[in-house]
């Protein structure tokens, strides 16, 4: 098998009320990144921002004006 020709960004899942999924554990993420790096060296682990306002990783929060 050859190398994957892609840049891969690993972004953590942000938990919010009503979400039916759970984020992967640290060890699972580490193993996943390691496997990707074996096939393709260009792997970046991103750190989430905006979680405090429910806007992390593209999840924008809707708020009503009061």
TrEMBL record:
It comes from the Bacteria. Its cofactor is [4Fe-4S] cluster. InterPro entries: Aldolase_TIM (IPR013785), Methyltransferase_A (IPR040072). One of its GO terms (biological process) is tRNA methylation. Keywords: 4Fe-4S, Iron, Iron-sulfur, Metal-binding. GO terms for molecular function: 4 iron, 4 sulfur cluster binding. PANTHER family: 23S RRNA METHYLTRANSFERASE, RADICAL SAM CORE DOMAIN-CONTAINING PROTEIN. This is 23S rRNA (Adenine(2503)-C(2))-methyltransferase RlmN. The lineage of its organism: Bacteria, Candidatus Ratteibacteria.
């Amino acid at each position: 098998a050859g190398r994957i020709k892609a840049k891969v960004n690993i972004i953590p899942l942000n938990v919010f009320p009503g979400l039916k999924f759970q984020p992967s554990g640290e060890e699972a993420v580490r193993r996943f990144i390691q496997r990707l790096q074996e096939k393709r060296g260009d792997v970046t682990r991103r750190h989430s921002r905006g979680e405090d306002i429910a806007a992390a990783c593209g999840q924008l929060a809707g708020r009503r004006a009061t």
